[in-house]
Amino acid sequence: MTARDASHPLEKLNPKVRNRFPMVDRDSRGTPRIYLNTGAGSLTVDTAAGVAHEAQGRLNPMPGSVATGELDTAALHARVRDLVADFLHAGDGREVSFHQSATSALFNLAFSLRSVLAPSANLVVTDLDHMANISPWETVWGEGHGAEVRRARVTPEGTLDVGYLLSLVDRRTGLVALTAASNGTGSIVPLEEVASAVRRISPGCLVAVDAVHQAPHGVIDVRASSVDFLAFSGYKVFGPMLGVLWGKAEILERLKPYRVETNKDVLPWKFEMGMLNNASLASLEAAMEYLLWLDGLVSGPASVTGDRGYRFRSVMTAIADYEKGLTRRVLEGFLEFAPDRFRCFGIADPARSGERVPTFAFEIAGLTPTETKKRLWAEAGIQIADGNHYSAAIFRHLGRPEGLCRASFGHYDNAATVERLLEAIRRLLD
Ligand SMILES: Cc1ncc(COP(=O)(O)O)c(C=O)c1O
Question: Measuring from each residue's beta carbon to the nearest atom of ligand 1, which residues come in under 6 Å?
């Protein structure tokens, strides 16, 4: 690491952070490993894992307003909605609904827009996105309602081609669906810039964001970015398998989700199908509280006085800065490899580390992605991913339709885990 990175508070706090993640350096069989697969799911923080079991045993299945168990369950639901609202810098907890996964949250949203979007509207999706934010729009709106769904492409570098996206938008564009960060190449999308440029062309256009990949890596501020809907997953933010959907209250009020007649037709319940998973909600609460705990360590006494939304933004800013240092070191290391033997896809210039998250798609000449994955596991105990990670379109653009290897880091990583990956690749290249 450079001297500048070494001075980052999260560098010094790294042992404490790692201590909170029981699986950080061993797998489910107790075998030592380096987990470089945060893109597929972050590690789970200790309290988020423990409380799920405890909550499942303790809480009443249903919330209610009389018996103690019911009251406790209702209070948990309300608390977690409020926590998530603060995490996103949203208005209030009524804007937050819970779903089986981010994918099902986005399908639910697509169905619900039938009361707001006209079939004569066109929609724009992007090839940078995971299919979770493409297929709902193509199937529900394209196939289901006969709307035109346009596809924005990516640049040869693997970033969103914003100019091309804007060329697809016209006054009849009713919705633009886009990711906050790519789980394929790690590129970050400048949401605020894109949303305001879209609305200059189509003032009433809705913007739906998939923030699943961005959520563990930096600030999500729905107010500043001025988007209308946003989804993320609990298991990417150190917590449970659970999807979260946020939307602006005044728009959510007008939506018409598919719901059973007896479900309350009011926010946030109208979007939720059946009973909520209390164990997952308790786990999400613990994951969010972990972030506040971390802010306490990073910011010291200033953390206690800040409001909760501010503390979330402060800790996520610290995480983004710290991870920028890790990214720079990874990219500097990649530059040492012979370009005819090794290729990093996506932004590869260390000076542009702030435009991406630490998710690296790469290729080693002569090895398939699966062979590379197997050898890193067998020879260095490093766990990475291969394939297209459900973001099929971007890999087609990059000329690698079968996908690539992907090493993805989180804030629990450090100079040593970066060096372990670089050293292992060096050995594969020898
Ligand atoms: C960018 C992105 N969007 C959406 C998803 C899907 O999330 P879920 O599994 O909660 O449906 C993923 C999962 O990997 C993802 O990386």
Answer: 101-103, 130, 132, 179, 183, 210, 212-213, 233, 243
